[in-house]
Structure formats: structure tokens, C-alpha cells
Design brief:
Strand order of the largest sheet: 2-1-3-4-5-8
Family: Belongs to the 'GDSL' lipolytic enzyme family.
Number of strands: 8
Order of helices and strands: HEHHEHHEHHEHHEHEEHE
Organism: Quercus rubra
Structural class: alpha/beta
Number of helices: 11
GO molecular function, one term: hydrolase activity, acting on ester bonds
Keywords: Glycoprotein, Hydrolase, Signal
Distance between the termini: 45 Å
Helix content: 25-40%
Shape: globular
Protein name: Alpha-L-fucosidase
Strand content: 5-15%
């Protein structure tokens, strides 16, 4: 399969140095040298879940994972996620899911993200409603807090398991990554809330997020890399379920994208406040919305096609149906049909109606890793504190 053409940002050295000087002046906790992150601790939902939900509640089946792992690998994609490319670029192994007890190695971090996770406590839990019980408060208070203390107890005890745990100083030197919030919006949309009601819930959602960041900071975290949420109104599961929503010129549901942008506005303001309250923290706000939206506005320019159509799905103009999903079976004219993937996932943006393909994830990571979509404009490899 051919890889999609990736947009390259050309930044002159003097201009790049000016950006770094500006960022350092605005927020002096950022360093002007490459970071040496020994570990990543990730919090989030299916956009960065490397096996948490699959190990605990819902098993992910073929054709998930077919492109890179050639088998299901706990990820809601045909291959790797942005968090995988992030780890690789920092010279670290792929993150093991905290909830996966088999074959896990936490020596260079842990992944607390689970698919269907929200920031706030969801009203409907799997399997009744479809949202994960491992919302952000649980990822922090019941998982990360215990992991931090128990991992060091295991290291002190010695033996074979000691080598599978991070060293004590890794917790202050690690990169703490966040990609969560999309499901809080989805829960509102699918819970029959109006657009106005979902918007009204956003300040509280963002406030809950800020509380968790402060709690993690108080446990020693210093370097934070926080994604905003993507253009939810461009995803097939929104387009198929809300057909009457007004479309923009690219076919995305405008009002749903407006909600995502309102969430992002609130999140960015909250991060400004967090920088004031957490003086030793280097907090990078990453605008993945803009990069993802470009995949829907000019897909051909980047080597993609049919951005609004799921690669793996069944039914309708968006190849998405609430009655059967990717990897499921459906009876059509008396015959059982397996819902498999499209012929060339490498040129498709959407994988299963909700999530992105490996090719799209790689594209987005390549753009955000440069710092071109970050505030401050710091590349991933330099997004650490200077204290």
C-alpha cells in the first residue's frame, strides 16, 4: 500500500529560533534543548487507548489492527495511533495499557486511556449505554495514584517484576499526555441534549479536566502535552445519526463542529489559567482540530480520499450504521455478511465511523510534532520544563 503524501512545514532556522525565544520568554519553564523523556503517562479515550478497554470490558476483534500489527492490538484503528508515533519519535516503546495484565512492561510509562472514556462521570456505563466506567477521575485517582506508589514498592522488593516498573525519578521527568473530551460531547448529543445544552455543559467538563491536571501536577508531573478535540461533526457516526444537521461546504455537520470549537476555546483558556496556578509546569496546548479538519477540507492534497466515509462499516452514504459496526456481522437477504475493511485503508481518513486510520493518525502526528500547531510553538521533543 502506498503511504499518503505528508505535508511538510518549511521553517527557516532564524524564524524557528525566534519562535523558541518567544515561547521561552512567555513561559520560562520551557527549555531550549531537546528533552530526554524517560517515560510517557497517557490519559484519554479511544484516540489513545492501546488496549485498556479491550483487556477489561470489550474485546477488539478483526479487522482492527490489520495494517500494522496484522491482528487486533487493543487499538480502535487499523494500526497505530498518535500516541504510538509519539512514543516511537521519543525513542520509547509503545505504551502498555494499565488495565492489561498480560505481557505488560511499564518501565517507560503506562497508558491509562480507555476507549469510550469521558472527563466527567458518564450517565450511561458499558454495557448499558456505551461509555467507559474509567473516566478521567478514575484514571487519575484509582489508577495513576496507585500505580505511582505500588510500582515503587515492587521496585524496592526486587525480582523479575522490578525491571518492568519505572524508576522513581521518571515520574517527574516524564511527559504527561492527554487526549480526552470528545466522548463528553458525544454523550450529550446521543443523550438527546440540544446543541445549546451541550455547550452549557462544557465549562464544567473543562473544569473537571483542570482539577485532574492539578492533581497530577501535585504528584510531581511537570511536562504536559494536551490535545484539544477534533472536528466531531466530520465523523461518519455523527453524520449518519444526525442527517438533518446543517452541513458546511465540505460536508461536515457545522453545529457539531462549532461545539467542538467551543470546547477547545474553553480548554485553551483553562490552560492559560493552569499555567498561572502551576508555575513549574510546562504545558503545551496542541491544536489537533485544525490538522484533522484539513483532512476533510483538502484530502486530495495530502493523498487521501472519501474522508467522510468509513473504511470499515456498513450502510448508507457514510458506510456507517448504528445496527452493526466494524468487525460485526449482519444478515442481508438471508446471508450473513462480515463487516470488513475497505481495500486501501492507507488512503482513507476514517476507519470505523468514529476513529481515524493509521495513515491519518500518522499524518496528524507528523504535523503536531513540529510545534506548528502548539501553544507555545514548541516541538514535541522540546516540550519539557526547564526547572
Amino acid at each position: 500500500m502506498e503511504s499518503p503524501t505528508i505535508l511538510k512545514f518549511t521553517i527557516s532556522l532564524p524564524f524557528f529560533c525566534m519562535l523558541l525565544l518567544f515561547a521561552f520568554t512567555v513561559n520560562p519553564v520551557f527549555g531550549l534543548k531537546r528533552c530526554n523523556f524517560p517515560a510517557i503517562f497517557n490519559f484519554g479515550d479511544s484516540n489513545s487507548d492501546t488496549g485498556g478497554l479491550s483487556a477489561s470490558l470489550i474485546t477488539i476483534t478483526p479487522p482492527y489492527g490489520e495494517t500494522y500489527f496484522h491482528k487486533p492490538a487493543g487499538r480502535a484503528s487499523d494500526g497505530r495511533l498518535m500516541i504510538d508515533f509519539m512514543a516511537k519519535s521519543l525513542g520509547l516503546p509503545y505504551l502498555s495499557a494499565y488495565l492489561d495484565s498480560l505481557g505488560t512492561n511499564f518501565s517507560h510509562g503506562a497508558n491509562f486511556a480507555t476507549s469510550a472514556s469521558t472527563i466527567r462521570l458518564p450517565t450511561n456505563i458499558i454495557p448499558a449505554g456505551g461509555f467507559s466506567p474509567f473516566y478521567l477521575d478514575i484514571q487519575y485517582s484509582q489508577q495513576f495514584v496507585q500505580f505511582k506508589s505500588r510500582s515503587q514498592m515492587i521496585r524496592k522488593k526486587g525480582g523479575i517484576f522490578a525491571t518492568l516498573m519505572p524508576k522513581a525519578d521518571y515520574f517527574s521527568k516524564a511527559l504527561y499526555t492527554f487526549d480526552i473530551g470528545q466522548n463528553d460531547l458525544s454523550e450529550g448529543f446521543f443523550g438527546n441534549m440540544t446543541i445549546e445544552e451541550v455547550n452549557a455543559s462544557i465549562p464544567d467538563i473543562v473544569n473537571k479536566f483542570s482539577i485532574n491536571v492539578k492533581n497530577i501536577y501535585n504528584l510531581g508531573a511537570r511536562s504536559f502535552w494536551i490535545h484539544n478535540t477534533g472536528p466531531i461533526g466530520c465523523l461518519p457516526y455523527i453524520l449518519a445519526n444526525f442527517p438533518s444537521a446543517q452541513r458546511d461546504s465540505y460536508g461536515c455537520a457545522k453545529s457539531y463542529n462549532d461545539v467542538a470549537q467551543y470546547f477547545n476555546h474553553n480548554l485553551k483558556e483553562a490552560i492559560v489559567q493552569l499555567r498561572k496556578e502551576l508555575p513549574l509546569a510546562a504545558i503545551t496546548y496542541v491544536d489537533i482540530y485544525s490538522v484533522k479538519y484539513s483532512l476533510f477540507t483538502k484530502p486530495k492534497e495530502y493523498g487521501f480520499e472519501l474522508p467522510l466515509v468509513a473504511c470499515c462499516g456498513y450502510g448508507g452514504m457514510y458506510n456507517d450504521s448504528s445496527s452493526v459496526g466494524c468487525g460485526g456481522t449482519i444478515t442481508v437477504n438471508g446471508s450473513q455478511i462480515f463487516v470488513g475493511s475497505c481495500e486501501h485503508p492507507s488512503v482513507r481518513v476514517n476507519w470505523d465511523g468514529v476513529h481515524y486510520t493509521e495513515a491519518a493518525n500518522k499524518f496528524v502526528f507528523n504535523q503536531i510534532s513540529t510545534g506548528a500547531f502548539s501553544d507555545p510553538p514548541i516541538p514535541l521533543k522540546m516540550a519539557c520544563h526547564n526547572i
